[in-house]
Amino acid sequence: MENAREASVVRGVDVYPVASLREVLNLLNAPEPPAPYRVEPGRIAKRKSVGYSFDFREVRGQLHAKARH
Question: What is the pTM of this model?
Fold first, then answer.
């Protein structure tokens, strides 16, 4: 369920977000399957960055990773 938005932008893949095994069973046994989860790829790209609660300057090494931040 937590990755439904990101997974839904993959072409050719239908996404049915579930939070438990019970929900998987309900989905598989449903008389008519629900519509797959959909989101416009542009909405994912425009989503605001979450940010980090720590400072990368304190990390030693990994210069290529720190340069991206």
Answer: 0.57
